[in-house]
Each structure stands twice: as structure tokens, then as C-alpha cells.
Amino acid sequence: MIENRPWLTVFSHAMLIAGIAVIALPLYITFVASTHTLDEIVQVPMPLTPGDHFWENYSQVLTAGTQRGAAAPVGRMMLNSLVMAVVIAVGKIAISIIASFAIVYFRFPLRNFFFWMIFVTLMLPVEVRIIPTFKVVSDLGMLNSYVGLTLPLIASATATFLFRQFFLTVPDELAEAARIDGAGPMRFFKDVLLPLSKTSMAALFVIQFIYGWNQYLWPLLITTEESMYTAVIGIKRMVTGGDALTEWHLVTATAMLALLPPALVIVLMQKWFVKGLVETEK
Amino acid sequence: MEKRVVFRSRWLPYALLAPQIVVTVVFFFWPAFQAAWFSFQLQDAFGLRSEFVGLANFVHLFRDEYYLNSFKVTAVFSVLVAATGISVALLLATMADRVLRGALAYKTLLIWPYAVAPAVAGVLWGFLFAPSVGIVTYALRQTGYEWNYVLNGDQAMVLVVLASTWKQISYNFLFFLAGLQSIPRSLIEAAAIDGAGPTRRFWTIVFPLLSPTTFFLLVVNIVYAFFETFGVIDATTQGGPGQATQILVYKVYHDGVKSADLGGSSAQSVVLMAIVIALTVAQFRFVERKVQY
Q1: What is the pTM of this model?
Q2: B14 vs B47: which has the higher pLDDT
Q3: What is the pLDDT at residue A242?
Q4: Does residue B22 form part of some domain?
Q5: CA dist., res. A217 & res. B119, Å (int)
Q6: CA–CA separation, B174 and B179 (whole Å)
Q7: Which one of A66, A124, A268 would you mutate to disrupt binding with B, by most B Cβ within 10 Å of its Cβ?
Q8: In terms of C-beta density within 10 A (0-12 exposed, 13-18 middle, 19 or more buried), how is residue B219 classed?
Q9: A95/B31 CB distance under 8 A
């Protein structure tokens, strides 16, 4: 604290609390709506305190889905989201860490070419090559499958960069000592580099888990069967045209379920999350 | 920077790189190449035959009033998202940097929206502002303001900007807070001793020192508004009413998937790739500057 200005401190707290209140408003209203019946919500204005239909609404969406929109149970969708998020996060970390190991610890022809090849993928997000990527995946027969959901998103320039930067800071003496002791490259990778990379891996996992869980356009394109919907797609399918027809009590319950896992990951693993965010942007 | 100590093997590095390279070639380069190829082709209505038409798709595209309008919509949208997100986050971060008590609690309560998927953010805000059941719609009506984003293009834009900004504030906040905490206290103290008040100190010392962070966030927020807000738009306005919220990425999807116009959609993809490349270069130019700074 530079100087004591009590009013400025009070003002700061007031601004922060106001900011938090505005940011939390949509979440609170969504939660309230998810604990009422549809009839209570469409009464204008809707109630502003939680009702007593919490278990009813949540157990209905988890096991049965909605009546007018998507009829698939949200429990199944959350499982799909979980598979997608974990496979993408683990897959990205796995293929990126070995790729950067090759780039940093070996000299071989075309090394720079491969590095730039990975780098350029930063400039090709799914959103700009929607139709051709869809065609490739459909030609490979991967529609409506976990492979199709995850494999195309697994390449990662950011993760490869992160590990490359990290490996460059690992002292050369470690590799030298390993070589003198007769350890081969894979032995060195497994016993020295992997344990050293643990914190970077944890940070990347948090970021990539959220990335995988929140994917929207890609699953929207390649899943046509309700049993393969992810939670984020499911909720969109429930908002059936015209807001008077939408079963808002179930939609809001699904929204709460869809945002809870990634929000918990961020809040509980805050330290890794912040580290991951800052490092992937370097 | 290079390693002095390296391992030797004829095949191992290629084997280690193989998974990443295979995925990259199959799912990135091949589709990108196809997008470029299709953009020079015209397909018949059934997708059976296609002929080479040169730059006709591009010429057609830039004569298309709707496409040019989509550029304008994207520009307005991304400027609004970036400006709102950055200023609100800077204000909150400055406040959070000042307070000692409860700093961690404030931080935790401000970062969770980052975890919310854009499509879910769209549904949350769409529900608040829903024309018939929305609680904010009701409050606005009480004050005499008629709100219906399904019919009014400007209101639809306000809604998608709100939902998109809301999600991005946590990200901006974290970077500003980190930036503020790295400013040496001695500078601020010196200014305080010289008699500069908090506002003056902010504009003459803190804000200029934060400019690399601000510039970085500007690029990131524009990239975000261009590409990652697809879910927000699809879950709320779906580009409507009319073309009022049809940003470029949404139009690629709409023309390619819903209208099955392969050539036109691919030409749009190529234009978008050019934009991403420009933005990425801008971002990396900044990284160089940060190092000097």
C-alpha cells in the first residue's frame, strides 16, 4: 500500500463486488430457473429465489432428457464430453511432448521443416476449414465416433512450443551425465525429462481439458446421432425455436451441468490454470 | 537457441515426430489445401460435377452485398468485444491490485466464466434477455424500453457482444493483474512522494507501462471475437435478424453447411485464412517487441 486512502479502498471493494455481482447474475438466474417448474418460469416476472424442484429437474435431464428437443439423457452427453476433454488433453500432451523431444534433442535432416509445419497449424483453426475437414473425416468413416471427435483436434502447436521452450531450459549437464552413464535417449526421456515436465503437463492439462470440454463447432458438424452429443451440443439442441416453446427449466438445468465440470477444474486447480494460461501465450 | 548435447539416432526422431505430423497433414494441411482447391471450382447443384472457374468465386464473393456486410458486422462486433472486455477487465484488475483483503476471493470469483463454453454463455444470456420470459427483458419493459432481440438487429448485436465479452473478461483480468503486479512499487512510490494522486499515477505511469499487455490482449480479443464466438452466435441469434449478427465465421458455416455452396464457402475460408495469418504475424511481431521492452 502506497498511501492510506480509506475512501479509495472502500470504492475499490465496491467496484469489485459490483463487477462480481454483474458477472454472476446470469449464473444465478440460470440456477434459480433450474429449480422451478416451467409454469413458474413463464410467469412474468419469473421468481428470483430458488424453488423446490431441484431434484426433479436435474434427475429428469440426467436420465431422460427433454420432451420437445433432444431426447437423449444428459448423463450420457456428459460422459461424451468427459471422454472428449480427457482424450484431447492427454493426447495433445502425449504427441506434443515426444515431438518436442525429437526437435530439441536430435539433429536430423528436415528438422526445421517439421518444426515450421507444426507452427503453421496455429494459423489454420477448425473454423476456417470447416467443410474440407468434415469431408476428410467422413471419408475416413469417423462420423459419430470418439475417434472422429478427438483425433482431428489433437495436433497442437502451442503444446509443442511450450515443451520446446521448457526443454531448452533443462541444463545440458543432465543429458551429458545420462549419456556418460550409458542411458539411451528414451531412458533419458522417461527418467529425467518426464519427471521434470510434471508442472508444465499439469498446467497444460487444465487448459486443454477446458478446450476439449467446450468444443462446439466440431461436434456440431460430425455428430448426428443423439447418443454421441456432447453436453454443449445437447443444450443447443434443446433450445427449440421460439422461446415460448423451450423447456427452460430443463435447458437451464442442463446448462448448469454443462458448465460445472470445467468451472470446478478452474477453481480447484487455479494455480495450474493461471500458469497454463500465461505459459501457452509465450 | 540450440542444445549442445544431442542424441544420435537415424530413425528415432522421425518416429517421435510421426504422430504429430500425421495428424497435422491429414486434418490440417490436406483440408486447407482442399479449401484452396475448391475455391477455384464451381459445383453443380447435386455435387456431381465441378469445373475450374479461376477467380470467379472470389469475384462473386466481393460483389456480394451480404458478404461485404458480413465484414462490416465482424468489424463492429470485434471492436466492441475487444474494447468493452479490455476496459472492464482493466478497471477490475486495477481495483483488485489495490485491495489487500480478499484479493484471492475476488480473483476466484472473477475467473470462472473462462470455463463456460461460448454456446452455453449464449444460452445463459439468451435466457436473461429472452423476448417473452427473460428477466432483464421484463425489467427493461418496466422502464418503458421495448426489448426484442429476435426482431431488432442492434439489440441482437448488443446481446452477442455482452455474452462474448462476459466470457473473455476473466482472461483479460488475469493478464492485467499479472501486468500490474510486475510494475515496480518504487516507481509508484516515487510518484506518490512527488504528490501525484491515484488517477494521475494511473495515467502517467501504470497505463503506459501496461501498454504491451494491452496490445497483446487487443490482438487476442480480436482473434477470439473472429473465431471463437461461433458458439455464442449459433446459440442465440444464428446470424439474424436479417444479417445483423452474421460474422464471417458464421457465414462460412451457413453457406457451406446449410446452403451447401461449396465453392463460395471455400473461397470464404481462404479469405479467413489470410486474416488469421495477418493476425498471427501481428501477434508475433508483438512478442519480439516485448523482448526488447
Answers
A1: 0.88
A2: B14
A3: 57
A4: no
A5: 9
A6: 9
A7: A124
A8: middle
A9: no
